[in-house]
């Protein structure tokens, strides 16, 4: 490995840290929709796979910690993964303990990262010999995955019902594109369909504004009131061993260790489940809240890191919610990566370890520092200067660009169709995981369906 | 009374519909405009131009549109009470 490549990796990690620090501070941005399109762009830009991986790892580590900051500071969840912490965060904010809460979160995040990386690498090493067998069964496993995620989801029956219709929708569009010759027959449009699923709920919310009655119900009269707490009266502790109590530290470590083994489950579900288990033993409400947010921040890192590292190294197919959602561009981003030739196939074990460590170490050290020292300043800046309209506008234009590049104007509307369909299903309780798995299993489902 | 100034809450924050439409139009024009400026057929170049356009569009909308948030500092709240 030459020094130029190492330099590129460091720059990629730094770029991810800067970008996702700002995105993380913006309330309400969904992880999949901010991670997936940008990672995809990085992949398509043609940089070396090892640089892509470094970027992605740095991005998730940064985002997972910075997303927690608006949650505590102003009571708006930074993303999906910080929603489990809302209750505890609001409790601590009301007690005037925002600064302490942020420090605890940062320390928890640090522990989660430090514990889960070696555990995930070890698990990946153990699972790797089975990788090839598993790959051969990929389509079937995606189908089973869609069923499995349906059964643990919010709306089980509807999720099960929606699998085949969604598969037909995806394959229908592909056959249309092949039929009119806009896409060659050997090419499967996948990435822009992914984006359609990702942006679906937002599209449905936006389109429902066109309906007068819906608009009335979403209407607000006033600007969003955001109360920013005092600029920190929580001391200058920086050492995680001083910020956390022994019990908080121990629980964070044990639960992020456990979470690594459960990498096929939903990260937000695991964070709620294990986080609540950890805090339920505490009687004192203050301790319960600090334990809750510490362990949950550790879990957010743990579930995300193991959810991407294990499938990437051991399996080569995206068989976990993290890898099939936010991380999907690492597995499938034609023409650079395909299911049979992606980061899993092109990197050696040591390259994996090196990229993951570089990304994670750079990201966690900078964000740990930023969170401890600059959380207040950055939050105030973002909330004052960045309008929500501009952020949604940026995402819509990115989707527009990537859909157009995939298969021209007709695909812009194709993606809109997918957005409306999947977004509606999503609002009815069919989660992203089920939809992503179905997209992967679609060719197989249709193939088997006509045999019946 | 329906007006262009209707504000709604979406994705966890407040937007004004008129400003939002302006923002989508500006971002899209910059993004796709830059994309079509790129020499056609070179996918990576096109992507970069498009992204650059998106960033410029984002900066422009940031200048034109003001956030719909009232920022209150807790310090001031306390002072006012006293």
* Largest interface (CB < 8 Å): A-B, 49 and 50 residues
Q: State the secondary-structure class of chain A.
A: mainly alpha
Share of residues in strands of chain A: under 5%
Which runs of chain B of at least 5 residues are low in confidence (pLDDT < 50)? none
What's the number of domains of chain B? Answer: 1
Number of distinct helices of chain B: 3
Strand order of the largest sheet of chain B: 1-2
Overall description:
The complex is a heterodimer of chains A (452) and B (82). Chain A has helices spanning 3-25, 31-44, 49-66, 68-74, 86-94, 98-127, 131-136, 138-151, 156-180, 191-208, 212-218, 240-243, 246-261, 267-280, 285-315, 321-324, 343-346, 349-373, 375-385, 388-427, 432-451; strands at 219-220, 224-228. With 452 residues, chain A is mainly α. Chain A has a domain at 3-151 and 222-387. The longest helix of chain A has 40 residues, at 388-427. Chain B is α+β, with helices and mostly antiparallel strands. Chain B has one domain. Chain B has helices at 17-37, 43-64, 74-81, and strands at 7-10, 13-16, 69-73. The longest helix of chain B has 22 residues, at 43-64. Chain B starts with 6 loop residues before the first strand and ends with a helix. The relative contact order of chain B is 0.14. The model of chain B has no long low-confidence stretch (mean pLDDT 83). Chains A and B meet through helix 10, helix 11, strand 1, strand 2 and helix 19 of A and strand 1, strand 2, helix 1, helix 2 and strand 3 of B. Strand 1 of chain A pairs antiparallel with strand 1 (7-10) of chain B, so a sheet runs across the interface.
